[in-house]
Fold this sequence. Notes:
- It contains six helices and five strands.
- The chain has helices at residues 10-17, 34-53, 77-80, 87-97, 120-128, 170-186; strands at residues 60-65, 68-74, 110-116, 133-138, 163-165.
- Strand 1 and strand 2 (68-74) form a beta hairpin.
- It is globular and about 45 Å long.
- Zinc ion is lined by residues 86, 88, 118-119, 121-122.
Amino acid sequence: xxxxxxxxxxxxxxxxxxxxxxxxxxxxxxxxxxxxxxxxxxxxxxxxxxxxxxxxxxxxxxxxxxxxxxxxxxxxxxxxxxxxxxxxxxxxxxxxxxxxxxxxxxxxxxxxxxxxxxxxxxxxxxxxxxxxxxxxxxxxxxxxxxxxxxxxxxxxxxxxxxxxxxxxxxxxxxxxxxxxxxxxxxxxxxxxxx
Length: 194
Ligand SMILES: [Zn+2]
């Protein structure tokens, strides 16, 4: 099965540089500056590389509150045999489990960084968690629900808006995924590990 991952288009990169806000919190100052976004996305990319070594589709995520990393996670779908074990879902569960959210379910004042544009489930979870800001790397033409297929962070029918910044280190995130799937396709059927 082919799974194409494309780097975010140039327009998204421009958006990222401009600190694009997708209609959320109009007039409000961004919660983090662009150099912070690049640095935190580097940590998410580290998680993605760890996932790759574990034979998982390389997607990583970090959760940041007031400049501090409060959770890190990576895709564990194969390891857990769980279709919901996406990096963003595990990130939310880790933050809850560690007590860092103080027992509350509202993820105020956080930015979620993830290397691949979130799917419908993860965007839904972000809306439910009241996550104010999301930064992603490359877009996902087959499942992206932040911008590409759906814009769940900016749907007036829902009761929460998520600021979305796309294309931050998108080339690196996309290269990781492309290389992973290329190796997967090249692997002899029934052969050992990637
Ligand atoms: Zn997801």
